[in-house]
Amino acid sequence: MNEMNLRGRGLVKTYGTVHALAGVDIDLFQGERVAIMGPSGSGKSTLLHVLSGILRPDQGAVQLGSTTISELSDAKRSKLRRTAFGFVFQDGQLVPELTARENVAFPLLLSGVTRGQALKTAEMWLGRLGVESQARKRPGEMSGGQAQRVAIARALVHDPAVLFADEPTGALDQATGHEVMQVLTTTAKMNGTTLVVITHDAKVASWCDRMIEIRDGLIHYDGRVQHEGQNLGERHGLGEGQDQQ
Ligand SMILES: Nc1ncnc2c1ncn2[C@@H]1O[C@H](COP(=O)(O)OP(=O)(O)OP(=O)(O)O)[C@@H](O)[C@H]1O
Ligand SMILES: [Mg+2]
Predict the structure, then answer these.
(1) 194 by DSSP, 3-state: which?
(2) How far is the CA of 18 from the centre of ligand 2 (A)?
(3) How many CA atoms lie within 13 A of 166 on its CB side?
(4) Is 42 in the pocket of ligand 1 (CB under 6 A)?
(5) Chunked in runs of 10, what are the mean pLDDT values of the chain (245 residues)?
(6) pTM reported for the whole predicted model
(7) CA-to-CA distance for 10 and 60, rounded, in angstroms?
(8) How close is the Cα of 191 to the center of ligand 1, in Å?
(9) Residue 96: how many CB atoms within 10 A of its CB?
(10) What are the residue boundaries of the structural domains of the chain, listed by start?
(11) For residue 60, how far is the Cα from the chain centroid?
(12) Is CATH 3.40.50.2300 the classification given to domain 4-226?
């Protein structure tokens, strides 16, 4: 088993009377690709925000390696998010005034890499995501699928330990969304990056190694994804979720 790199214990997040997270324990392992599924309002985005240090839990702790993220100051958590994590959201994340390669180079420029080196690395990542031809275009001149590939390149350019994606293909048509998700899951695997991706699409989950289903702020099912022609026989079902799949 790979090394554990992100751990949540007893995570609780409450909004008024809503238990967005009602006590979640979770371990994510190095290089693992995890799909988070579950109904609308079940707490998926809240879990992603708490694990990535965007939100502090009301109770419980999040650890990245030996660092307890949930205890860090806002400034330290924000620095950690920039260096250790990458994010891809549904849309609207690229800076419209910048070209694709400038958008991808941006996180490197922030961390002090020279402009020439940052643009070179950005172009290499655009190539890996299959959009090198878009390097000098601005987001408004690209298709939705191309823009999301650029956003993925930007999220990976600083080699994060964990890539968090919240419905990254939610605004794309199904065929384009599947293409982008295949590129995302394959690139994460090649790069050894831990991937946490929220999706409503069972097909997307099938390109991951593990599927976690959230219901009412709790983990309802957690198991290996059964790939066609494989019998991994290593499921860790919880409650009635055991009979699913
Ligand atoms: N900032 C907030 N203020 C108040 N309630 C919130 C806030 N954020 C989330 N909630 C509530 O917490 C619950 C979980 O929300 P969350 O966004 O995590 O759901 P989700 O599983 O991501 O849903 P979706 O699939 O629709 O994105 C919901 O009932 C939601 O209304
Ligand atoms: Mg959500």
Answers:
(1) strand
(2) 15
(3) 17
(4) yes
(5) 82 97 96 97 98 96 94 93 93 91 96 96 96 97 95 95 94 92 94 95 92 98 75 42 41
(6) 0.90
(7) 4
(8) 31
(9) 9
(10) 4-226
(11) 21
(12) no
